[in-house]
Amino acid sequence: MTGSDRPRFIRLKHSPDSRPAIAAVAPNMGRALLGHIPHALARARRYVHAHVANRADAEDIVQESLARTLRRAGETGIGETGIARPDHYAISIARNLMADHARHAAMAGECVMDEALPCGAPLPDQHLQHRQRLALFTATLEAMPPLRREVFRRRRLEGQSREEIAQALGLQPEAGKKHISRAMAQLARPL
Question: pTM of the full predicted structure?
């Protein structure tokens, strides 16, 4: 987001002076909620700043998550009938806002998430290596004698017992065990 289209938020500091500004955001809140705000603000701020590199964007996310938490708490209250833990609620909103922010930044070609965060996707070379191993596995499996391949498939891929396989294919249980052992050895050689 550029500076001109970025929404502006009220900057809330962790101080007693912030209570009037907070009350202006969610006017129908009770005193119970005002006691939770400094803790929720501090926890959300620490969490977001640990995950977002740009300080201004991080503050915008913190403020938006707190504003949404306040709105929701104003509607439902705090406790058994409303938000049980305002700090947890604010962090879950912040997490969703960070994901939205990262998605929008990715479309714009920006990088907003901290590079220290691990990515769950495999690297391109790992992906290539996995595809090559899968092709080798498939080729080795196809090169097996049909009976060995069928016994292996039923035991390792379908989870059937040796007795079930032997009965279904008309084999002795020990013969099925030999087919499985030989199939495993044959698959281990090229891998």
Answer: 0.42
